[in-house]
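Q: what sequence does this backbone want?
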């Protein structure tokens, strides 16, 4: 499958690689995220390729969609290695990598590949309902529930946006490691932005290093906008709020890579698939303005 059914340039002429990773092995609730990449790519074939806010046809920068990256039969650790290798190939070729999940467990390998390529002066921006700071979950440290703990282990600074669900263990970790000021709780930012006050976004951007990797867990959005996730939580960001945040981050920092994860499509309700495809296309438009 290709993004938007485009006639794509060969990889060496593309500036962006889309890497679909239909991985769902450590999911707690259902395995739906394994179907996310195909649903997003299918929806992308039905959306306008003219971006009505950027006034450009973003695909003209050159997209190349890789085949679905199969899950490794030997389990989560082997899958991390497979993702790392696939990502490194793209980065070494000088292409911008946008990974499409799949569950959030794909992210540590992607971040490590970007860290190894771009260096440690790199911040990770996580949009998510969940803290994902558990040391282990379901008997693996590569669970979707441990993603940001693995980023912490890498020693990279990170900022978390939209959080509204965490365990007592995670709360203790946040308190003991003094991570509180890196968290933008949904309960604070959603009412502020609804009231037209987006100052928290600028404060957030100021915390980021010059180079940023974005991990966008779609459950960071409110379930009214994005019902199709494995673990939806009430009280999240609305679509315009999330787009506004992306606009500011991309405008003020060099985003070196991104992933969009946890789309778990609901049969007969394609709205989430379209929202995810649109969001991805908009982010790539911000990254590669054509004017
Ligand atoms: Mn999440």
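A:
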């Amino acid at each position: 499958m290709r993004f938007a059914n485009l006639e794509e340039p060969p990889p060496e002429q593309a500036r962006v690689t889309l890497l679909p990773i239909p991985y769902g092995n450590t999911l707690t609730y259902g395995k739906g995220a394994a179907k996310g990449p195909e649903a997003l790519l299918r929806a992308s074939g039905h959306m306008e390729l003219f971006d009505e806010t950027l006034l450009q046809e973003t695909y003209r920068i050159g997209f190349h969609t890789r085949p679905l990256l199969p899950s490794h039969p030997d389990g989560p650790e082997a899958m991390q290695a497979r993702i790392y290798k696939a990502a490194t190939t793209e980065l070494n070729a000088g292409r911008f990598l946008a990974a499409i999940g799949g569950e959030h467990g794909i992210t540590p390998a992607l971040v490590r590949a970007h860290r190894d390529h771009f260096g440690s002066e790199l911040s990770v921006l996580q949009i998510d309902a969940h803290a994902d700071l558990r040391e282990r979950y379901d008997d693996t440290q590569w669970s979707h529930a441990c993603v940001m703990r693995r980023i912490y282990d890498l020693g990279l600074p990170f900022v978390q946006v939209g959080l509204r669900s965490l365990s007592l263990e995670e709360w203790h970790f946040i308190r003991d490691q003094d991570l509180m000021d890196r968290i933008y709780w949904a309960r604070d930012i959603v009412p502020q932005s609804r009231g037209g006050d987006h100052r928290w976004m600028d404060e957030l951007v100021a915390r980021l290093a010059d180079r940023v990797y974005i991990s966008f867990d779609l459950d960071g959005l409110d379930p009214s906008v994005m019902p199709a996730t494995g673990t939806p939580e009430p009280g999240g960001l609305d679509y315009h709020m999330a787009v506004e945040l992306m606009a500011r981050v991309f405008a003020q920092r060099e985003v070196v890579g991104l992933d969009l994860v946890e789309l778990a499509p609901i049969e007969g309700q394609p709205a989430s698939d379209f929202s995810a495809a649109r969001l991805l296309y908009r982010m790539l438009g911000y990254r590669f303005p054509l004017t």
